Amino acid sequence: MSPPPVPSTGGSEPEPPAEGGKPGLVAERTRLAWQRTNLATLVVTLLVARLALSKGIAAAPLTAKLIAVGALAAWLTMALVTLPRVTGRARRHTDGGGPALPTAALVTVGYAVLGLALILFTDGLR
């Protein structure tokens, strides 16, 4: 038999754990998810920079360098904004994630723009 539902207090108290869950694991899962996000961002950054510098240098050297620098700047921004969440030192945000979520969305769109620039300005990377 499950316990009776706990009424909501408007966010002033922590939510009860899901059935069978432990209250401390939510923060741990969130921290690990941000670590995976940062790792994936780093991998994409290195791939974009490598592609830009290896294939794009001959076709458009300045554009290729700018794309590589843009990718590195996007990763650095993402890493700095999410650092408190990755290290577990973030204050509890009640606004849905603070600045980390919009930053992740902007970095994702930025990578799409960098990829499009790679294709358009380096002649399809042939």
What does this structure look like?
With 126 residues, the chain is mainly alpha-helical. The chain has one domain. 67% of the residues lie in helices and 0% in strands. The longest helix is centred in the middle third of the chain and has 35 residues, at 25-59. Residues 9-13 have low confidence and may be disordered.
Mean pLDDT: 75
Largest β-sheet summary: none
Tally of separate helices: 3
CA radius of gyration: 20 Å
Category from helices, strands and their pairing? mainly alpha
Are there runs of 5+ residues with pLDDT below 50, and where? 9-13
List the domain count as a whole number: 1
- Helix content class: 55-70%
**What portion of the residues fall into strands of 2 or more residues?**
under 5%
Give the distance, in angstroms, between the N- and C-terminal Cα atoms. 65 Å
List keywords for this structure.
mainly alpha, single chain
Give the SSE layout.
Elements lengths: L24 H35 L1 H27 L12 H22 L5
Helix pairs in contact: 1-2, 1-3, 2-3
Summed up, what is this model?
The protein is an all-alpha fold and 126 residues long.
